[in-house]
Amino acid sequence: MAVQREPLLNPVPVKELRPTQITVGMREVALKRQMIRAQSVKKTGTFLGTHMVPAVLGPKGRHYVTDHHHLARALIEEGVKDVLVTVISDLSALDKDSFLFVLDNRGWMHPFDENGQRRDYAAIPKTIAELVDDPYRSMAGELRRLGGYAKDTTPFAEFIWADFLRRRIDKDDVAKNFDKAMKEALTLAKGKDADYLPGWCGPTSD
Prior knowledge:
Blueprint: E1 12-13, E2 23-24, H1 26-38, H2 41-50, E3 53-57, E4 63-65, H3 69-77, E5 82-83, E6 85-90, H4 96-105, E7 132-133, H5 135-145, H6 157-166, H7 171-176, H8 178-189
Parallel strand pairs: 2-7, 3-6
Antiparallel strand pairs: 1-5, 3-4
């Protein structure tokens, strides 16, 4: 299969992008929306020029996003119509079933729902706007910003952390007091139980 790493010269409508996961953290999306609102149109354009969305070209020439789902969702919510895309692989010659199988096995897909359960490929939404909220994905993003773990190149690393937190912090506690739940998450992130996770920083001496 041909591999293309140069960005496309023509922008792609954000609404036409296909997700490769089922969920996002809507708190994460809200933060990106705030960032877009707080800066000028020119600055947003410059930002998008340096944060092109990576995608795999699939059947019928559709672009399947492999990263930046939160940014893409925020752009839709803020009325931004187009975004530059970097095609990391052209798999458009494959049939749909083969294509999805390859995405999955190359780590370009995360077919897990808001409860952390693996689902059939058909459960992945057809549009970015249909992505479902997973509060634990928001926790994982906030945890990294707070220094709970380091940025890592492992595919879908934040979802791995989200699953770790999901098994240890009650969902009702997250909904009732997010900040309190984050304090618990920080403590858990520094414990030995988390040492297998991508970007683990180890225990502190505090």
